[in-house]
Write a structure and sequence with these properties.
The chain has about 140 residues and is an alpha+beta fold. The protein is built from four helices and four strands; from the N terminus they run αβααβββα. The chain has a four-stranded mixed sheet with strand order 2-1-3-4, covered by helices on one side. The model has no long low-confidence stretch (mean pLDDT about 80).
């Protein structure tokens, strides 16, 4: 076991040495200067909010489509009340919350200043409450 650890250490040293010799200049820190880019920026139509619905929460445990059903219900409701466009509902992969029961929903709005609420929602019984919460974030 000791020989294996020593071999691994030698291998890592060789890799690090080779990596250090290949890099001509040290990489600049990300925050050391302003990012200069030609990537265009746009103002989205959904300025009031973006609703992220985790597609993994219910699907992995039971094979159900509860998150998809919730997402489609929210889209229909927003369209019916003329709020589709101001708000956008988007399915996302795992958000890392992984509740035992319910679906993770994150509400992102211009007024949230990085403090976006992360909610655990029962896809059936909390629909109306979630919708009311979304409408309250209307800017």
């Amino acid at each position: 076991m000791k020989k294996l650890i020593q071999r691994i250490k030698r291998l890592l040293k060789r890799i690090l040495k080779r990596f250090a010799s290949n890099s001509q200049q040290p990489l600049p820190l990300i925050n050391s200067r302003p990012l200069e880019t030609s990537i265009p920026s746009v103002s989205p139509r959904w300025e009031s909010g973006l609703v992220l619905v985790c597609s993994q929460c219910a699907n992995e445990r039971s094979g159900s489509t509860a998150s998809e059903d919730l997402e489609n219900w929210l889209k229909s409701r927003l369209k019916f009340e003329g709020l589709w466009g101001e708000f956008r509902v988007v399915s996302t992969s795992c958000l890392g919350v992984c509740p035992r029961m319910g679906i993770t929903v994150v509400l992102v709005s211009n007024g949230s200043h990085g403090n976006s609420p992360c909610l655990i929602v029962n896809p059936q019984s909390d629909r109306e409450l979630l919708y009311s919460y979304i409408k309250q974030n209307k800017g």
